Amino acid sequence: MTDIVTALAETIGEKSVVTDHDIVSSYLTDWTGRFRGEAFCVVRPVNSKQVRDTVDLAKRFDVPLVAQGGNTGLVGGATPVKKAIILSTKLLSGIELDHDLQLAKVGAGVTLSALNAEAQKAGLKLGVDLASRDSATVGGMVATNAGGIHVIRYGGMRRQVLGIEAVLGNGRLISRMEGLEKDNSGFDWPSILCGSEGTLGVITQLTLKLVSVPRHRAVALVALHTLSAALAVMTEARRRLGGLSAMEFMTSNGIELVSNLDGAPWPFNNIPSISLLVEAAGEDDQMEKLAYFLDSLEDVVDAVMAGDSAADGLWYWRESHTLAISRKGVARKLDVSIPIRAIPAFVDDLTHLLENDYQQVKPILFGHLGDGNIHVNLLDVAEGDTGIEHRIYKMVSTYGGSISAEHGIGRAKVNELALTRSQDDIESMKSVKSALDPASVLNPGVLFV
Ligand code: 2HG
Ligand code: ZN
């Protein structure tokens, strides 16, 4: 009997099916190094027809199919739970821009940086931005409904998608690529597929909205004593800082780790308990506006500012967190959403829990304050201890938050979903899954148990 690898090679061509052990193994570990999987081969389709053929064969041979973009996910969502075919979207790489309508038609495997490099020529960019921009693909960003650093201004990935093409698990090709701003002719496929983590369909192409690149920006790094003071700055910024485009917070543990990278000197004499990064962007010079805004604030211990290209120097402190943490070990990554007003109380409770029951654990908290999104990174958790995550997620649920703000559920949180989604909710999601992927070939073990 023909095996799946031979059938794939015969159908979509040997060149598109990789079996070389070293190459295949580079797809089998997630970015964090925490999740590993096994694969029969890696398929690299160059068009939607090859994707469809791959899905059909996965169904015929009853073999799981896992789509993978840049492999930058942090919850193991693109690393097979059961031995699978990995479908790499990397060669789905077309980019077509409509400058006047500010739209991009792109292959799912286009990286965010590649899209922005093209869009930049016309003074445009994608509204969503994140530190893994050089590797993260737009298909993966839609599949996980990525958020990033400018959600406060432009919204997350869901808000950027005007059209989608995907091969569903049932083998059907959905193509709604026209980029219609208005289309109420039934279910909205971008909404259904956004955040579905490769469990309903393989995204092949997208029509994305672009935004104008603001001519100027200014960034301030603000030293504060407390998170409540940071929330007060945010409330004021929302009210009075017209160009507000980012509001990110960091804590002293994280700044210390980034300092150890020796990439730049920390701009203050001391490391404050809270550092807030505030960015304003717009058509006119932003430095004066931001300085005026900062001057009007109480509770600011210290602040430094940088404009335009120098702003990246301050962003360095925020964007190097993930790397600096990974240099210290494999962290438990709890990307949680908390109702904004409850953030200080939640962080207090979390600190008490760790001080009382997990003294050896080193927490690093940072994230997108404007979105109520805290990246709780935990280093030095005892191997095999899942109780710590469960207790924190339970705490999140008592605050009315979500156990995943922007990274997804993946494999990492699959047993915790019921903490912040009801049984009716989960069963209804499962019904959608079995309608669109009846044989359950797409990414089994991710999102649902
Ligand atoms: C970020 O905001 C990313 O930098 C990664 O979402 C967060 O490493 C993390 O926990
Ligand atoms: Zn983030």
- Domain count: the total is 4
* Broad shape: globular
Mean pLDDT: 97
Main sheet characteristics: 7 strands, antiparallel
The CATH architecture of the largest domain would be 2-Layer Sandwich
Instruction: List bound small molecules.
Output: (2R)-2-hydroxypentanedioic acid, zinc ion
N-to-C span: 31 Å
CATH class of the largest domain: Alpha Beta
Please state the structural category: alpha+beta
Predict the CATH topology of the largest domain. Answer: Uridine Diphospho-n-acetylenolpyruvylglucosamine Reductase, domain 3
Taking pLDDT < 50 over at least 5 consecutive residues as the criterion, the unreliable ranges are none
Computed over alpha carbons, the radius of gyration is: 22 Å
Salient structural properties:
binds (2R)-2-hydroxypentanedioic acid, seven-stranded antiparallel β-sheet, 449 residues, Uridine Diphospho-n-acetylenolpyruvylglucosamine Reductase, domain 3, alpha+beta, Alpha-Beta Plaits, binds zinc ion, Uridine Diphospho-n-acetylenolpyruvylglucosamine Reductase, domain 2, 31% helix, 23% strand, five-stranded antiparallel β-sheet
What does this structure look like?
With 449 residues, the chain is of the alpha+beta class. The protein folds into four domains: 4-88, Uridine Diphospho-n-acetylenolpyruvylglucosamine Reductase, domain 2; 95-212, Uridine Diphospho-n-acetylenolpyruvylglucosamine Reductase, domain 3 (2-Layer Sandwich), CATH 3.30.465; 216-321, Alpha-Beta Plaits (2-Layer Sandwich), CATH 3.30.70.2190; 329-425, 2-Layer Sandwich (Alpha-Beta Plaits), CATH 3.30.70. 31% of the residues lie in helices and 23% in strands. It contains 15 helices and 18 strands. The chain has helices at 4-12, 21-25, 48-61, 112-120, 138-143, 151-154, 189-193, 227-240, 252-259, 287-295, 311-319, 321-326, 343-357, 387-398, 423-436; strands spanning 17-18, 39-43, 65-68, 84-88, 95-98, 103-107, 124-125, 161-168, 173-176, 201-209, 211-212, 216-224, 244-251, 274-282, 302-307, 332-337, 362-368, 373-379. The strands form four sheets. A seven-stranded antiparallel sheet has the order 15-12-14-13-17-18-16, with helices on both faces. A five-stranded antiparallel sheet has the order 5-6-10-8-9. It has a four-stranded mixed sheet with strand order 1-2-4-3. α1 runs antiparallel to α3. The two termini are 31 Å apart. Zinc ion (ZN) binds next to β17.
